[in-house]
Design brief:
Radius of gyration: 22 Å
CATH topology: FAD/NAD(P)-binding domain
Number of domains: 1
Protein name: GMC family oxidoreductase
CATH superfamily: FAD/NAD(P)-binding domain
Keywords: FAD, Flavoprotein, Oxidoreductase
Number of strands: 20
Organism: Sedimentimonas flavescens
Family: Belongs to the GMC oxidoreductase family.
Distance between the termini: 14 Å
Oligomer: single chain
Structural class: alpha+beta
Helix content: 10-25%
Pfam families: GMC_oxred_C, GMC_oxred_N, NAD_binding_8
Length: about 500
């Protein structure tokens, strides 16, 4: 496409949703994706290939805060990380948009309220065909329209867990999901959580967002088009996008949606004489406030009850989301993991194969997730062109308290053996915050419409703009913010 009106860098949840939202406006949209399409192969439902051999992990290394190299768990394909996500499309709670006191500190709140974002949540739920159920989760914020589809059904072991938790006075709820269950299982009877989507069984950024966008002739996707830097021009505008091939492209509007780490790295790598600290960075906030959910896997077992679930990921528990700490502080969310196998368990533990297989056959596998708080010293920087990620984990006591509460609950629910293991730093658990949203250009990177304070034609619509991480999966919130930003672009710029 020559003469694009909008260039979008990245085809993940933020970029794909932006393209879908602008497609009907007549604007010529060019999406640049550094990776290629994921295609069916012998690896895509092979748990050893995925979890042991790391077949899909990128061939790159970042540095940690101590300068030690590590292989990050981020993915570069059409559809971005959403190709591997657990397809959880849940709204942040109303309380997440206001300042909140946690065990580890107080969050700053957002420049917009839940009510301002709510209509865009509805539009995102329809674009991604979310399956859910209202009324069983007391923390669920108001919806102005119901979920488009009913919930994905529980398998027998999960229905039993739901009944046991309910009998304890808790409120297990249906997990809102973007999954075409029969389509997913038609390729192989496996979980979808952390498995790549190669048959359209998940409603991810490619199968929903890009599919809707590319139905329009004015939208084009270029794969294997890696952006090296943005070029600033006169009048505080982004003048162009330079690819690693040496090609330079330009458009009146540039949308950066490369992910929380890569977006920050691109802005920092785009430094020039007029912007020595990088583009969009007069606040010195680009790369700062990196957040990554505090997460643990919890395995609940009864030695005489097998769990024959295939996918299992249909239940959430938010009874400790708004309160539960020693002084009423929020603790976080619990939801089912995709069903683990002995291979998956062996990849992250020293268990012998026979024991790992026995545990996997009997366990209910739960994902405990707590909020990581923004900290300007938790940050992404560049060291001789190489990404350095110095994650300063916060609010860990709240996470330990959540894990403790969940273990107690699960034992009361009839599971005498309950094990837990925290996720390590190689596992990206909803990275966000490196180009935070705010009203004040001196302390934030983008405004409430996701437009750069410094560059009037630059928008950022990925997880980097999130002021707080909350304690639920961010995909739907990213999509809702992207739809809202697209509406702002439509109102404030002219189509060709």
């Amino acid at each position: 496409m020559n003469g694009a009106d909008v260039i979008i860098v990245g085809s993940g949840m933020g970029g794909a949703t932006m393209a879908a939202s602008l497609a009907g406006s007549g604007r010529r949209v060019l999406i640049l994706e550094r990776g290629d399409y994921l295609r069916p192969s012998a690896h895509d439902r092979d748990d050893r290939s995925i979890f042991v051999d790391g077949h899909y992990r990128p061939d790159e290394e970042w540095l940690d805060g101590e300068g030690r190299p590590f292989n990050p768990g981020n993915y570069y394909y059409v559809g971005g990380n959403s190709k591997f996500y657990g397809a959880v499309l849940i709204r942040y709670r109303r309380e997440d948009f206001s300042p909140r006191k946690h065990i580890g500190g107080t969050t700053p709140g957002w420049p917009i309220s839940y009510d301002e974002l709510e209509p865009f949540y509805c539009r995102a739920e329809h674009l991604y065909s979310v399956r859910g159920n209202l009324g069983d989760d007391p923390t669920e914020p108001p919806h102005s329209s119901p979920y488009p589809f009913g919930p994905v059904p529980d398998e027998p072991a999960i229905a039993d867990l739901r009944a046991r938790l309910t009998s304890l006075g808790l409120h297990p709820s249906r997990l809102p999901l973007g999954v075409e269950l029969e389509q997913w299982l038609s390729r192989a009877r496996t979980p979808w959580d952390a498995f790549p989507d190669t048959n359209g069984g998940k409603l991810d950024a490619e199968t929903a967002g890009l599919k809707a966008a590319l139905q329009h002739a004015n939208v084009t996707l270029r794969t294997q088009a890696r952006v090296r830097r943005l070029i600033s021009g006169e009048g505080n505008c982004i003048a162009g996008v330079e690819l690693t091939s040496g090609e330079t492209l330009s458009a009146p509007i540039v949308v950066l949606a490369a992910g929380a780490v890569q977006t920050a790295a691109l802005l920092l790598a785009s430094a020039n004489e007029a912007n020595p600290n990088g583009l969009a960075n007069s606040s010195d906030q680009v790369g700062r406030n990196f957040m990554n959910h505090n997460c643990s896997a919890i395995l609940a077992l009864h030695p005489f009850r097998r769990n024959d679930s295939v996918y299992q990921k249909t239940l959430a528990l938010n009874d400790f989301y708004l309160t539960g700490g020693p002084n009423g502080e929020p603790l976080g969310n619990a939801q089912m993991l995709g069903k683990i196998s002995g291979e998956i368990l062996q990849a992250s533990s020293p268990l012998p194969r026979s024991i790992a297989n026995w545990v996997a056959r009997h366990s209910l596998d739960i994902y405990a997730m707590s909020e990581d708080l923004p900290n300007p010293e938790s940050r992404v920087t560049l060291e001789h062109g190489r990404i350095r990620l110095d994650w300063r984990r916060s609010n860990w006591d709240a996470h330990l308290a959540l894990v403790s509460r969940l273990k107690s609950v699960l034992r009361k629910a009839g599971y005498p053996i309950v094990l837990s293991r925290p996720f390590d730093r190689r596992t990206p658990s909803h990275q966000c915050g490196t180009a935070r949203m705010g009203c004040d250009g001196a302390s934030s990177v983008v405004d409430a419409n996701c437009r750069s304070h410094d560059h009037s034609n630059l928008y950022i619509t990925d997880a980097s703009v999130l002021p707080t991480s909350a304690a639920v999966n961010p995909a739907l919130t990213i999509a809702a913010l992207s739809i809202r930003a697209a509406e702002h672009i439509e109102r404030n710029t002219k189509a060709a």
